[in-house]
Amino acid sequence: MPPKGGFRRKAPLDGSSTPLTPSLAEQLSYLHNPRPFKNPNYTKNVNRRTKNLKNVLSQERERERAERERRRQEKLEGTSMDVDGDEGEEDIPSYTSIEAPPSVLPQKHYCDITGLEAPYTDPTTGLRYHDKSVYDVVKSLSTSTAKDYLSARGVNSIVK
């Protein structure tokens, strides 16, 4: 009778200890498959340490300070050239000084009751709601409760 939970392995006839058929784990193993996404010449740098955010920010500030000092020295020595009369400090983008323009995507609206996205607005109270079941709740609210929900969102409109 085979052992519980699997098949019995057959011992090889030549007396060696390696089985003729690989086990299921060996058949499903990805250990010896080629890995084309890995660089075969890669060697890990054992001296590299990870840096926390505080270290990254302090190094960035130090680099910016050194760059400003270098530009100031060039200006004093007269070796730097002003292009188009540019006298002011130029902003070098860094980790701490990146400014992004406003988004071109429309602002998302969220349900005042559930916090889910709200494609609908109740015309009488001005509350935003997610679906029909929430609309039933919005209809049953008193005007003072509706005003409280609106004030929580930061809207001070008059509820009709």
From TrEMBL:
Transmembrane segments: none annotated. GO terms for cellular component: Ino80 complex. Residues 109-138 form the Vps72/YL1 C-terminal domain. It holds the Pfam family YL1_C. Residues 15-26 have a biased composition (Polar residues). The keyword Transit peptide does not apply. Residues 1-103 are annotated as: Disordered. Its main location: nucleus. Keywords: Nucleus, Transcription, Transcription regulation. One of its GO terms (biological process) is chromatin remodeling. Residues 1-10 have a biased composition (Basic residues). Residues 59-77 have a biased composition (Basic and acidic residues). This is Vps72/YL1 C-terminal domain-containing protein.
